[in-house]
From TrEMBL:
<dbReference type="GO" id="GO:0042742">
    <property type="term" value="P:defense response to bacterium"/>
</dbReference>
<feature type="domain" description="Disease resistance protein winged helix">
    <location>
        <begin position="139"/>
        <end position="210"/>
    </location>
</feature>
<feature type="domain" description="Disease resistance R13L4/SHOC-2-like LRR">
    <location>
        <begin position="275"/>
        <end position="585"/>
    </location>
</feature>
<dbReference type="Pfam" id="PF00931">
    <property type="entry name" value="NB-ARC"/>
</dbReference>
<feature type="domain" description="NB-ARC">
    <location>
        <begin position="5"/>
        <end position="51"/>
    </location>
</feature>
<keyword id="KW-0611">Plant defense</keyword>
<dbReference type="InterPro" id="IPR032675">
    <property type="entry name" value="LRR_dom_sf"/>
</dbReference>
<dbReference type="InterPro" id="IPR042197">
    <property type="entry name" value="Apaf_helical"/>
</dbReference>
<dbReference type="Pfam" id="PF23559">
    <property type="entry name" value="WHD_DRP"/>
</dbReference>
<dbReference type="InterPro" id="IPR036388">
    <property type="entry name" value="WH-like_DNA-bd_sf"/>
</dbReference>
<dbReference type="InterPro" id="IPR058922">
    <property type="entry name" value="WHD_DRP"/>
</dbReference>
<keyword id="KW-0677">Repeat</keyword>
<dbReference type="GO" id="GO:0009626">
    <property type="term" value="P:plant-type hypersensitive response"/>
</dbReference>
<dbReference type="InterPro" id="IPR002182">
    <property type="entry name" value="NB-ARC"/>
</dbReference>
<dbReference type="GO" id="GO:0043531">
    <property type="term" value="F:ADP binding"/>
</dbReference>
<dbReference type="Pfam" id="PF23598">
    <property type="entry name" value="LRR_14"/>
</dbReference>
<dbReference type="InterPro" id="IPR027417">
    <property type="entry name" value="P-loop_NTPase"/>
</dbReference>
């Protein structure tokens, strides 16, 4: 409040708002951004309200456990803490009474007029499409970290996202919606990636409760999170989120109107899922991620209106030819399943935008074949709306036809052979919107000569897995907008750092078995904007030299499996911006030194993790 007390003017005006765009109209030097209270500050505020009649506002010993849980539930929100403390100030100071209060705390807070009025005002102010997007967030479980990429695809499938010309994809427009909800303080950012993009967010429990209540009242959606209660919904309800379901679910006549079915209960049996889906004929969105399914119910392929199908992280291993019936499908997620091949009928999905089909072969991450692709028909290249294609097995004919996919932004090709390279380079050069390219050789002995590779100049992410000719480093250096590079099993005999060191956009560098030499040198001025560096399984590496003035913005360093590295790099002390170091599967001598006397080199780093 120093600006007020030092102001010589006769009047003072304080403006409070939940919207950042409103605050931006005022002089920036007078902005005071409020954050959630710390655990200690939350506790102090709560005690002042709840124990206002007790000397020093001291919490009785018998209530400390429940009081701490109640404060934690408020998640640092001052209004919630004040209201909760005030309510409890009038209640008996008995453990059973406080336990009962805690068990219905979410209801108490979401129905408190003081809180409801404040939060409802923010919700009612939203434009219709943004309001739908916000209410949709309430379909995710309590305290869930919501992936921005996933929810953007869901919003698009639901029809919430408006097209804004040819310069922006619908996915980019949807990302803008997330930012708008953040600016309005309706969702909380959990994780921002190294590019500054929101990666994950969550909803405050209070907002989620109000969101669920509003959605139910407006027949937007229902959340089923109590298997002991009978699910009740209007025939006009369009969406259901099953978080704790019951095995004896009985689909009602109203369930035929559902447009969205999101399953978060991975204990629900196949038969229960199958019986429920038989009545959901008009579904647009179906997510069965992490469910117990081993085969896909044929009824799914009768959902002619389906826009979004997520079967990822299930034990499904085969997809029926009936897949071709889903003419409206935009997103098909089969990631981390056992599916090895997709039928020719895939080419009938003319509206498909995103295809995810990666398989994991080695969870230890120790072999060359950690991930595997899936065979897809060549005719997939006739799907002109495709933007994401990962991870698919390469064939010569498929590679030749890739140039038809002018909207493609992400391409992951597995089992690439040297004999495919001329066609691959020719096709990649014709994909103007490509921002992420990943190529993996057919095995660890195949040498790929990618010196002819000429991706679009706007390429941002590059993953190359397999032995590479030295000339690839010059190709990579020419891609000045690259922000993320991963080189794995490359077999370089000479230090590759000098070729990459002056790429001004580069923020992430990942080297896995990429270099067979004994010395890596980070010279002064190298990697000026690098934020994360992963060095893993460089088996011959004996020494790392780090000079002053190198990697001046590095935040995260990971050293993993460097079995020949015995000495801790002295130059670690120069990396003043480091926030996190991860030391994983390193030689015992190295770890002992780092945890001992040479720990002084990293004493400025707040987060140090050792994994053995």
């Amino acid at each position: 409040m120093q600006h007020i007390s030092q102001n010589d003017q006769g009047s003072r005006v304080i403006i409070t708002t939940r919207k950042e765009n409103v605050a931006s109209l005022a002089d920036a030097k007078y902005h005071i951004k409020l954050y959630a209270l710390s655990e200690e500050a939350s506790w102090d505020l709560f005690c002042k309200k709840a124990f206002c009649t007790i000397p020093e506002n001291r919490c009785p010993e018998s209530l400390i456990g429940w009081a701490k849980k109640i404060v934690e539930k408020c998640q640092g929100l001052p209004l919630a803490i004040v209201v909760t403390g005030s309510l409890l100030a009038c209640r008996d100071k008995k453990e059973q009474e406080w336990k009962w209060f805690y068990n219905q705390l979410s209801w108490e807070l979401s129905n408190n007029p003081q809180i409801k009025d404040v939060l409802n005002l923010s919700i009612k102010d939203l434009l219709p499409h943004l309001r739908s997007c916000f209410l949709y967030c309430g379909l995710f479980p309590e305290d869930a970290d919501i992936s921005s990429n996933r929810i953007c695809r869901l919003w698009i499938a639901e029809g919430f996202v408006e097209e804004k010309g040819k310069d922006l994809t619908m996915e980019e427009v949807a990302q803008g919606y997330i930012k708008e909800l953040v600016y309005r303080s309706l969702i909380q950012v959990v994780e921002i990636n190294i590019y500054g993009k929101i990666k994950k967010f969550r909803m405050h429990d209070l907002l989620r409760e109000i969101c669920i209540a509003t959605s139910k009242e407006e027949r937007f959606s229902v959340v089923w999170d109590n298997p002991h209660l009978t699910l009740r919904f209007s025939e006009e309800t369009r969406r259901i989120s099953v978080q704790k379901g019951s095995e004896d679910i009985q689909p009602s006549s109203g369930s035929s109107t559902f447009r969205t079915y999101l399953l978060f209960d991975n204990n629900m049996s196949y038969s229960c899922i199958h019986d429920a889906l038989k009545t959901f004929r008009l579904l647009r969105v179906l997510s069965l991620r992490s469910s117990k399914m081993k085969e896909v119910p044929e009824v799914i392929f009768e959902l002619f209106n389906l826009h979004y199908l997520d079967l990822s992280c299930t034990e499904v291993s085969e997809i029926s030819k009936s897949l071709g019936n889903l003419h409206s499908l935009q997103t098909l997620d089969l990631g981390f399943t056992g599916v090895k091949k997709l039928p020719d009928e895939l080419s009938k999905l003319k509206k498909l935008r995103h295809l995810y089909v990666v398989r994991v072969l080695d969870y230890t991450l120790e072999t060359f074949d950690v991930l595997a692709g899936v065979y897809v028909p060549i005719s997939i290249c006739n799907l002109k709306d495709l933007q994401n294609l990962r991870c698919i097995e390469a064939t010569r004919d498929l590679i030749v036809n890739l140039q038809k996919l002018k909207l493609l932004r992400v391409l992951h090709l597995w089992k690439v052979q040297q004999c495919f390279i001329p066609e691959l380079c020719a096709s990649v050069a014709t994909l103007p919107n490509l921002t992420y390219l990943a190529l993996s050789a057919i095995n660890d002995g195949e040498v790929l000569n990618l010196n002819c590779l000429k991706p679009p100049s706007d390429l941002e992410k590059l993953r190359l897995i397999g032995k590479l000719e030295k000339g690839i480093l010059e190709v990579i250096r020419s891609l000045q907008k690259l922000r993320d590079i991963a080189l794995c099993w490359s077999g370089f005999k000479e230090d590759p750092l000098g070729s990459l060191a002056h790429m001004s956009y580069l923020v992430s560098l990942y080297l896995v078995r990429a270099y067979d030499g004994e010395l890596l040198t980070f010279c002064q001025g190298y990697f000026p904007n690098l934020k994360q560096l992963f060095l893993r399984d460089l088996m011959q590496l004996v020494q790392i030299d780090i000079e002053s003035g190198t990697m001046i913005n590095l935040c995260h360093l990971q050293l993993s499996g460097l079995q020949s590295l015995q000495c801790v790099p002295e130059g670690l002390s120069f990396l003043s911006s480091l926030q996190r170091i991860t030391v994983q599967h390193m030689p015992e001598v190295f770890v002992e030194k780092l945890m001992g006397d040479e720990g002084r080199l990293i004493q400025h780093v707040p987060n140090i993790t050792y994994l053995f």
